[in-house]
Amino acid sequence: MKSKYSRSFLALLRGGWQELVGKPGMLPNENRSFNVVSLFMIALVGILIPLNFYLGLPVLAIVLIVTEIMLITMFGLSRYRGLHRTGLHVYAGYSYLLVIFTYFYNDGSAGPALYFFLLTYQLLIAFTSSRLQWVWTILHFLLPVSLLAMEYVNPSVIYNGYDSRGARFADLMTSIPIIVICTFVAASYFRKRYECERAAAEEHAKHIEQQNERIRLQNELLTAANREKVELISILGHDLRNPMNAIIGTLEILTKEELPPDVTKKLKEDLLMAAHNTSDLLNNVLAWVSGQIKGIHPLLTWVEPCSVIERILAVQRYMAEKKGIAIQLSIEKGIKVISDAEMLEVIIRNLISNALKFTPQNGTITLSVVADAATGQCMISVRDDGVGMTDEDVKRIFNGHIQSTYGTESEKGIGLGLFLCRELTLRLNGEIWAESELGKGSVFFLALPLYDNGKANDPVTPRLTERDEAVAG
């Protein structure tokens, strides 16, 4: 309880002191420092006034009373009017007059006047501008030397105001500690202010360094993202031009030439396949561009993967039949996931399209949808017995590696589809990965959160990493 009251008392004292000298931010540091020293000077003179009365120096005590009034006025102008520079100049002029008077009245060089010259010099040097420091230095050199010379030439101008030798000794013994204490307090205050400013500067520099590091990382991410976009545009210019030229050429032949039925059928099949491949490529590009411009913002609700797969296969079965690929389904009915229907369709369509592209004639693709109540996830897998991939390819396929690729029937791709799958899966709070063995096929896994009919539909916010935000933005 006692320490609690002590802390409250100290806090009250600190608050009162802040009100006296001015709170940080309200006044400039130079102004606040002048206020601090003014308060100590007021306290010093307040001690010297009764001391001089006690030592039998009433004239000097009256001069100090006038000095005290002047100091209080200066403090008020500085604290409440911000006129600390004016107060400093008045203080300098008055201090010279006071010390000169004290020198002549208080036993000259044998009294404490010369010691107070050192105190006034310290305060003036601490607060004045560099332009005026030489002025105060020269004055503080010339005045004491002039007074000492005057005393040496004509000692009678010095008045011994002390009643006894003991009074002079007492005056010196009290003046010197007061000067030392004032010097110590002023120096400590300036050092503390310097340490605070240095700590603030170091903290500011550290903050700037952290900001620069964040900016550097963001620039690297943006540079990488822009490089991917430039590569994509460059490859698109080539990979879209070729199939479009092939489609136009085939249509011109079919329009202008009379061909046998079997040749016409073959050209139409090739034309349809080229159109399918080009359509898949354009769909991926449009989805990616839309995400870059508008951002990827899923509308999370419950979706049945079974229905999505049926819609996709209604279009993709022609490609499978043309290559003689068998599509096997292992799907649990009635499974619902928390997802965005359009995004989920883009993901599954790309996985099936890739499987068809890299599976050879008469191969097999297996689609599986299984619910795992223990993990609260639905596992969707697309397995093929196609060409497979190396471990290095598996690590790279989801990282936006833009490169022209060809399927078993020369189907065109640029590697954008799987990268888009990864970006969309992240927004759906899911996971996607692949397992593959070269020459033996691949299997792609997509894990999404299950929808629980017994609970309110409250999908969580999609998880985004710093790189995801840079790529998506």
Quick structural gist:
It contains 13 helices and nine strands.
Shape: rod-shaped
Total helices: the number is 13
Q: Which strand-content bin applies to the residues?
A: 5-15%
- Let me know the number of strands: 9
Number of domains: 2
- The strand order across the widest sheet is 2-4-5-9-8
The largest β sheet comes out as: 5 strands, mixed
Percent helix: 55-70%
Mean pLDDT: 76
Terminal residue distance: 58 Å
Structural class: alpha+beta
Unreliable residue runs: 454-473
- Report the oligomer: single chain
Determine Rg (CA atoms, Å).
45 Å
Order of helices and strands: HHHHHHHHEHEEHEEHEEHEEH
Describe the protein.
The structure is a single chain. With 473 residues, this protein is an alpha+beta fold. The protein folds into 2 domains: 2-212, no CATH class; 262-472, Histidine kinase-like ATPase, C-terminal domain (Heat Shock Protein 90). It has 13 helices and 9 strands. It has helices at residues 2-21, 29-54, 58-81, 84-105, 113-127, 130-153, 165-256, 261-294, 305-322, 341-358, 391-396, 416-427, 466-472, and strands at residues 301-303, 326-331, 337-339, 364-372, 377-384, 405-406, 412-413, 431-437, 441-449. The strands form 3 sheets. Strands 2-4-5-9-8 form a 5-stranded mixed beta sheet, with helices on one face. Strands 1-3 form a two-stranded antiparallel sheet. Helix 5 (113-127) packs parallel to helix 7 (165-256). The longest helix is centred in the middle third of the chain and has 92 residues, at 165-256. Mean pLDDT is 76; it is low at 454-473.
